[in-house]
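Cont'd.
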Amino acid sequence: MGNKIVVVDDEEDNIELARAVLSAKGFEVITFNNGKTAIGYLEGCSELPELLILDMRMPEMSGIDVCEELRKNPKFGRLKIVFFTASSDLDGELLRRFSVLGFIYKPFDIKKLVEQVRKYIQM
Amino acid sequence: MIRYNKDLRERMGSLIIDNGTQAKNDDTLIALTRYLEESAEKLKELDRQKDAFLDIAAHELKTPITSIQGFAQLLQDEKVLADVEKSKHYLSLITRNSDRLYYLILNMIDAFKIVNKNLKHNIEPVNLYEILDSTRNRFEEQIISKGLSAKFLIEDHLPKITSDSEKILRILRNLLSNSVNYTESGTISLRIFRDSKSDNIQFEVMDTGRGIPEEHKAYLFTAFHQIDPALNRKTGGIGLGLFISKGLAENIGGKVWFESVEGKGSTFRFNIPIVCTIEITRETNYNNIDGGVDNGE
């Protein structure tokens, strides 16, 4: 099993934090600060990541927009996606609509982040 | 809301008193309907502002907290601590995000004080030359390091005025920050001069930046309105700077206005009266007015 994770977030400091925490636990972490370049990377990827962590609230392309775009392509039909979010009032309908596994809530405990990522990968 | 209710009672009263005259009643009803529609619009706007605030509270406040908590937790790891350079870098990220959080909270508090008309005054003799120097110290290097020209100009022999220097500095900070963020080439200038027509002191912040698109002009001073949310997120803005600037200027007896051509640049101006027109209240800190603070020349 690979250990590649892609994190997409327009907040550079949050990206750096996720990379520092997850790479210290042996994950290969690829990061992007916008959805468009992340989609470009994934389309050219021969081996898909184990997990795509998408910030929901990004300018230009939101996490939902990225997800919608990816799900149109059969190549990404089985890609495991979770939303990164600061909102605590989101419902499961959103997850069902885009076949998203769940949420990772900000702010997060760094140990919990690692646990959650491992659980989502095993789903 | 209390004022609305009083207006409404008066209008309803006139409707009942005039019940003998059908035509007059029809006019009153039309006016009343229009009034209710306008009130509903105002309430909708307030509701929109409340929703915008909650949305921002959820997202914008949690973003710096995520970095502060996360990097602080990483620094509890002895392996990370052993790496001095990495530790220093993480500490700088904590500091940066703490500052960002602090200014977010400060802006939100000010925005609410403006909405509730609850801003306090700190009236004192203001030396406009010191205002210019302080602003120059804060922005000149930042403007030049972006490859832009900076001009800080002030008319000779300006009078000492009595006003709130902290509010003047905050307005200038907001206007110049916007200019720096939205200008990629050319010049940013600040000019302070006496407007002889209105006998006010005028502050003019001019840039050769991207300008303001027509469709945004009407909403520019509305709370939480953002022209470029992507850029705002990078700079830590939340669309309160101009709303606060307008509120602060009005609070010290002045006003803010602008001219802008998309693709060519913007000029923001605000003025303040030479003679203090602020009503001195019990909350006003007016000690400095009589305190003989010497600002020098």
